[in-house]
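#onboarding

Welcome to the new folks! Below is a worked example of what a typical request in this channel looks like: someone posts a single protein sequence, and someone else replies with the predicted structure as tokens. Don't worry about understanding the tokens yet, we'll cover that in week two.

Example request:
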Amino acid sequence: MNVPHLLGVGLALASAAAWGSGDFSGGLAARRTDQFRVLAQAALSGLGVLVLLAWISDEPMPTMRNVWWALSAGVSGAIGLAGLYRGLSDNPAASFAPVVAVVGASVPVLAGALSVGFPAPTEVAGVSAALAAIWLVSRVRREPGLDASFEQNRNLGLAVASGLAFGGFFILVAQIDREVVFGPLAVARVGTLAVAVAAVGARGVGWPRPTEHPAALVAGVLDAGGTVLYLLATRFTRMDVAAVLGSLYPAVTVLLALRFQGERVTRVQWVGLAVCLLAVALIAL
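Example response:
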């Protein structure tokens, strides 16, 4: 039994749980205010948590190499979020969100195959199943009168670009040295906050009060926690495996919406949740 690999799988799944919960919380806040105000609040709360953890853990100061990797990861992740928000405001979520999710998970898979070779056959099967599960779970019911295909949708490029930015985040943040965790991730959150500040200023929506939307603050803490867990997972298993498992976060968001908001889960999403379990089993083997 490969104990480090199993530990990495567990940490990656925990990151998916944290990210999915954070998305659910951030979605609640975004119903009441501009999404970039939510992003700004979330970036601030996440930054505060990471700075506190860096201080408590007494980590060494990150090197400039780690700072640049972290800043690049933070900016890449923020660009992905900005593209996702923009796309969802202009397009049916049923067509836009799955493309973003699958492209974002596929980028580290391709990078891993090119850098260290393909994983074991069972892991390849598990990763393939996970990509299918991400697509299925991300599918939502079509709104009446909306075409969920991209035949009449000019923003396929935006969905791909957003997914590439998320995939870039997975790869960039995994380059941080093993000796440090919280400090570089705090730097990454500064990059995210910078993008959020620029977006808020460009849109002229005004800076949110610190406690204006508590759900946004919770989202930031959960998102930061998910990133910590993902980075730790890459220390015990392959980066591409950790990224794909972490990308199963839509399954958690769907289940939370079912439990707390009474939203209906479609048959396709139920199939996706089942495929998630199959994917985890194959990768754990």
